[in-house]
């Protein structure tokens, strides 16, 4: 079972994402912000799924720290800001994927499954 570290500051969205991924068979640890997610980086993960824009530490910085600890970690960003999504590609670790909100839960699960199979 693949292990996913989820960082999303919107409480309801975090819950929806975590439940959808758990129903699809993934083990999910959900964090309310970047600082909380970074506290979990010593644990091995298969995927970091993080919002980009969060108060405090943003998702890009979480991803950089995660990739520095585990260069093989798969990284996926979700964001509701198109301009942020475009600039994230330049600042994110290589190979990271960006999904724009709103994202349908089926589409998210499908993209996660594709990343896990790659």
TrEMBL record:
Cited Pfam families: Response_reg
Superkingdom of origin organism: Bacteria
Domain Response regulatory: 3-116
SMART domains the record matches: REC (SM00448)
Gene3D superfamilies linked to this entry: 3.40.50.2300
Modified sites of kind 4-aspartylphosphate: 51
Keywords for this protein: Phosphoprotein
Protein's recorded name: Two-component system cell cycle response regulator CpdR
């Amino acid at each position: 079972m693949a292990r996913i570290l989820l960082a999303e500051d919107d409480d309801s969205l975090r819950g929806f994402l975590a439940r959808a991924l758990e129903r699809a068979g993934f083990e999910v640890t959900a964090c309310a912000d970047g600082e909380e997610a970074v506290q979990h980086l010593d644990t091995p993960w298969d995927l970091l799924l993080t919002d980009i824009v969060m108060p405090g530490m943003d998702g890009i910085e979480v991803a950089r720290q995660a990739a520095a600890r585990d260069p093989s970690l798969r990284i996926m960003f979700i964001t509701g800001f198109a301009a942020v999504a475009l600039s994230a590609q330049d600042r994110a670790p290589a190979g990271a994927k960006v999904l724009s909100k709103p994202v349908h839960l089926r589409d998210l699960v499908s993209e996660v499954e594709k990343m896990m199979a790659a």
